# Entry
Amino acid sequence: MPSKRYKKLPEKTRDLKSEAVDKLIPILKQNCTTKFDESLDLSLQINNKQKKNEINIRTVINLPGGSLKKTKVGVVCEENKSQEAKDAGAEVVGSDELIEEIKSGNINFEKLICTPGMMIKLSKLGKVLGPKGLMPNPKLGSVTNDVKKAITDAKSGQVEIRNDKDGNIGVSIGNKSFTDDKLIMNFNAVIDALEKEKSNNTIKGDLIKQAFLTSTMGVSYKIKLDKSI
# Structure
């Protein structure tokens, strides 16, 4: 049953005409009537069903306006890199013993980084890490010898953009407490990343079918994109 707070929010906002993101952000903030700092979340539906193949997007970007999300990082590395990983802020660090913990289902992190030398061992756990989207990937910068940079990126506003089997993408562009300018910067960074992914794939027509913006406990609004992607 909807709360009294929710009942006071605008109704049927998804049926309204689409608006530019800079017009919607102040409206979304007005609807953030809870006591906590709600996040503003972007929901996209992409045209992933192509005639010859299915488009799967997976990339990472560093949000220029930052992020308040606290990411718990795990690092699988050689012993001589363990201290470097801990000093950089990784919460879970280990080598063979950490791989055994992961194998047993003990996953106590939200992002996993691995050095190239340990990847041959970790790659055997694809059935455990793959479904959770935690398998490190060189393309995403999570298989690297520069563990310090990878950890710093993971903790300072880096987000992963990937679609599910139905073509849906969900990503937070910040919180109510962010300035409008920072939220717009983060939104544009996501759109630019998708535009780049479109150019890297053979996609007919628009990549983005629909785009919506909502707050954690609020209602959804349709976004009018400045350009066709």
